[in-house]
């Protein structure tokens, strides 16, 4: 039964993505003259992504702390990363921001094209030059009052345990004087197997926005990074999210 539901689910996504992308193009064309930050397009994209989460009969999604996030003003959002569906559930924040995502996703038809249309930020994993371009682009966005969302672990956790954070997100916070918003993503690691797309049993996913961290409250980037790591780790532990991702 799970295999059949999985095939039907992915088939619906493949069939509907072109139509959603046409809607994105129309939204972009209508709002471009007055929405330079592409907030409306991002909110449309958020609804597109969350539609697929709500559509799945095996998934339940709740988001708490959304009101903590700003509508305007620079901010660095950091979240743990355990599953492919983390991107879908984080769109349920329904707040304006620009994703930092691996460049391969930008090549995916319709989905990747929409990411380019939104002005999200690509990153080639392992490329120092790409990291420098990403940092420069994120810096420009923050200076314009546009939040950015980064997975500070760099890649998905293989076993669901929180990995060490990289410095980039926190260097941006310190350099541009903007707050860090730690976000704990619960339960998504159980949604899909490590390899393959056959869905697992019922999943209760939850996105939890934690209290922001001000860079001025910490002596350096490392201290800010560890504070964010501790906050997310504590939230995951409190929810009992440690599991085997095999």
Structural class: alpha/beta
- Tell me, rounded to a whole number, the average pLDDT: 92
The parts where pLDDT drops under 50 for at least 5 residues are none
Count of distinct strands: 7
Order of helices and strands: HHEEHEHEHEHEEH
What is the makeup of the main sheet?
Answer: 7 strands, mixed
Which sequence of strands runs across the widest sheet?
1-7-6-2-5-3-4
Report the total helices.
Answer: 7
Helicity range = 40-55%
Shape, principal axes of CA atoms: globular
CATH architecture: 3-Layer(aba) Sandwich
Distance between the termini: 21 Å
Structural domains: how many = 1
**CATH fold title:** Glycerol-3-phosphate (1)-acyltransferase
CATH class category: Alpha Beta
Q: Note the beta-strand portion.
A: 5-15%
Gyration radius (Cα, Å) is 18 Å
Describe this structure in words.
The chain is an alpha/beta fold. It has a single domain (2-238), classed as Glycerol-3-phosphate (1)-acyltransferase. The protein is 42% helix and 14% strand. The protein is built from seven helices and seven strands; from the N terminus they run ααββαβαβαβαββα. It has helices at 2-31, 39-55, 86-90, 111-118, 128-143, 168-176, 221-238; strands at residues 59-64, 76-79, 98-102, 121-123, 148-150, 180-186, 203-209. Strands 1-7-6-2-5-3-4 form a seven-stranded mixed beta sheet, sandwiched between helices. The radius of gyration is 18 Å and the shape is globular. The relative contact order is 0.17. The model has no long low-confidence stretch (mean pLDDT 92). The chain crosses the membrane at residues 7-29, 41-59, 71-94. InterPro entries: Plipid/glycerol_acylTrfase.
